[in-house]
């Protein structure tokens, strides 16, 4: 089975350098092989249970959304 959008590997040398740490936020998405529906991992169990109730045995393919840069949150001691 071919993926429509194969993962893109970006060498670390292509990322801009920064003195501050960079935090990447990546949403893990799952694609159901039965109905080709993509959903967040947090919804996958509910979706899988729906298929099980129908007597089906679904398989999921793990996919990731493109990385988004997250602002560093202030840290301190309270």
Walk me through what this model shows.
The chain has a domain of 47 residues. 17% of the residues lie in helices and 24% in strands. It contains one helix and five strands; from the N terminus they run βββαββ. The strands form two sheets. A three-stranded antiparallel beta sheet has the order 3-2-4, with helices on one face. A two-stranded antiparallel ribbon has the order 1-5. Strand 2 and strand 3 form a beta hairpin. The model has no long low-confidence stretch (mean pLDDT 74).
Could you provide a short overview of the structure?
The chain has 78 residues and is α+β, with helices and mostly antiparallel strands.
Structural Rg: 18 Å
Number of helices: 1
Terminal-residue CA separation = 53 Å
Strand arrangement across the biggest beta sheet: 3-2-4
Name the poorly predicted regions.
none
Describe this protein with a few key phrases.
elongated, alpha+beta, 78 residues, 1 helix, 24% strand, 3-stranded antiparallel β-sheet, two-stranded antiparallel sheet, 5 strands
What order do the helices and strands come in, and which of them pair?
Elements: E1 23-25, E2 28-32, E3 38-40, H1 41-53, E4 60-64, E5 68-70
Antiparallel strand pairs: 1-5, 2-3, 2-4
